[in-house]
Write a sequence for this structure.
């Protein structure tokens, strides 16, 4: 039987004036997060040269934000359902701007890691709130699909603007300037959001369970840390202890949610095949992509010698493809099917990554640009549709929690991808054989090799850079191959798990709520409320 999402009832069909202006405010948050993520990649070589982190510290700078945000998203999503999504969004935006200053002026690797972790705490408030608000702002399913597409297009536009803006700043200012751009955007979001955004929350949220918060945070951070350390250094006792602690905490968290009358996370959500399939597809896809995303800017700058602004322009096809696909993804899913669009998009990304396994130090831009365009198109189609499925398959009073699960999949996938694929790239890189006199820090990161080569005699420095760059490219090609395999596996999983799923408003489909089939909810218990948008 076709499992679809329940169409809006007459009450829910009431439209809210100003909803598109409210969406524009939410897009600011999306743009900011996307820009912040992309400029970090561009700034990594400069941070590496200035702060001189070890290879492990550099990976922590890249992924600690994802670790923290993955551990707190469910908590913040549930908290937004309780205290108000607008309230938590504006509070998080204020904190995000303030903590960005600490990122900009970090003077040691340790301070930078701490600043990124604190930014993760603030960031965990933003994404669940934006996705939950879309569920309440847009009751018409086709409008909601378009809003999700706009959200996704905004995220992709941020990914396009970020490298170019970051490149300009890095060429004219110090690397900390890429974090200070958060301040004016967040100021506008807070000032305008106070006026335009409607408040929405669960009218009967029940008690908040702090112990569940502790279990979810310890479980997520412990498990992801163990995976990261095992990939980088093997299974030491400390790694095993962290993994066991994380697994035990997650087990305790699930058990507790099943027994609480009002849980922090309603585990019945996962009984919906559409919800679970979309979440799994997102996690696997981001895992497979994150290695490329994290190391591509280093390849463009430190291997091919592009300036930061040029590196940003080189990554533009991926963002343009995602923008174009995101705006028509909902229509495509109704015209064909959810599983065809999601599985097809993920398969396209996998094939594009497979093409990058032949990447070399002098690979021409036509191959790289074409591969990035296909990556953007495939990701834009897949992520926009899975976001719509997740958003529409739950009652409005659980929108914050459901969106938090969605974002947790993204962040966990990113953290695991950077940890696993990043460790592969780093491991391959460290094995290069440099000329006599190569300093140890040259084996820690490619940025370290560039800095070391500048202090060596010309011939020795050139030989060091030649060996280091080739080793880095070998690691990147291997990571692209593994990422391709993960994306193709995600496409297969999506094809089977999303069988029979259809978006609300799909012509010729049996209309019934996806959660109703899995979790036993027969109706949306919350009254019509304003909502808002989110994207991949």
């Amino acid at each position: 039987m076709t499992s679809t999402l329940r169409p809006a009832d007459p009450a829910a069909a009431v439209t809210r004036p100003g909803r598109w202006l409210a969406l524009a405010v939410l897009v600011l948050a999306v743009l900011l997060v996307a820009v912040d993520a992309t400029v970090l990649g561009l700034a990594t070589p400069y941070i590496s040269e200035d702060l001189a982190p070890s290879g492990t510290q550099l990976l922590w700078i890249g992924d600690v934000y994802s670790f923290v945000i993955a551990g707190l998203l469910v908590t913040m999503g549930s908290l937004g359902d309780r205290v108000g999504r607008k309230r938590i969004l504006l509070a998080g935006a204020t904190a995000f701007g303030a903590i960005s200053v600490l990122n900009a002026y970090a003077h040691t690797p340790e301070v930078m890691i701490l600043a990124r972790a604190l930014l993760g705490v603030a960031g965990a408030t933003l994404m669940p709130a934006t996705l939950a608000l879309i569920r309440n702002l847009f009751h018409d399913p086709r409008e909601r699909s378009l809003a999700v597409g706009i959200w996704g297009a905004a995220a992709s536009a941020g990914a396009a603007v970020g490298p170019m803006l970051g490149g300009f700043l890095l060429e004219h200012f110090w690397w900390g300037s890429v974090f200070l751009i958060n301040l004016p955007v967040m100021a506008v979001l807070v000032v305008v959001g106070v006026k335009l955004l409607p408040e929405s929350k669960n009218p009967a949220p029940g008690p908040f369970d702090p112990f569940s918060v502790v279990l979810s945070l310890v479980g997520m951070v412990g498990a992801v840390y163990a995976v990261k350390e095992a990939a980088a250094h093997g299974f030491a006792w400390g790694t095993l202890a962290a993994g066991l602690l994380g697994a035990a905490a997650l087990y305790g968290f699930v058990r507790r949610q099943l027994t609480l009358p009002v849980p922090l996370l309603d585990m019945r959500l996962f009984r919906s095949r559409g919800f679970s399939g979309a979440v799994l597809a997102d996690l696997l896809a981001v895992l497979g992509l994150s290695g490329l995303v994290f190391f591509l800017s280093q390849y463009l700058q430190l291997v091919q010698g592009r300036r930061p602004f040029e590196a940003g322009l080189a990554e533009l096809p991926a963002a343009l493809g995602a923008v174009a696909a995101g705006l028509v993804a909902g229509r495509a899913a109704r015209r064909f099917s959810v599983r065809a669009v999601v599985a097809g998009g993920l398969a396209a990304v996998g094939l594009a990554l497979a093409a990058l396994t032949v990447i070399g130090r002098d690979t021409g831009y036509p191959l790289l640009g074409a591969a990035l365009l296909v990556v953007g198109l495939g990701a834009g189609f897949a992520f926009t549709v899975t976001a719509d499925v997740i958003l529409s398959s739950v009652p409005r009073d659980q929108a914050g929690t459901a969106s938090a699960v969605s974002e947790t999949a993204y962040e966990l996938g990113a953290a695991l991808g950077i940890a696993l694929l990043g460790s592969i790239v780093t491991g391959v890189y460290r094995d290069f054989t440099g000329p006599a006199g190569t300093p140890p820090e040259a084996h820690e990161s490619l940025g370290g090799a560039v800095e070391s080569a500048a202090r060596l005699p010309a011939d020795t420095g050139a030989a060091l850079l030649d060996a280091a760059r080739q080793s880095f490219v070998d690691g990147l090609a291997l990571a692209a191959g593994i990422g391709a395999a993960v994306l193709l596996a995600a496409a297969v999983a999506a094809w089977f798990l999303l069988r029979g799923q259809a978006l609300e408003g799909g012509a010729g489909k049996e209309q019934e709520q996806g959660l109703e089939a899995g979790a036993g909810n027969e109706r949306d218990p919350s009254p019509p409320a304003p909502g808002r948008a989110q994207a991949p």
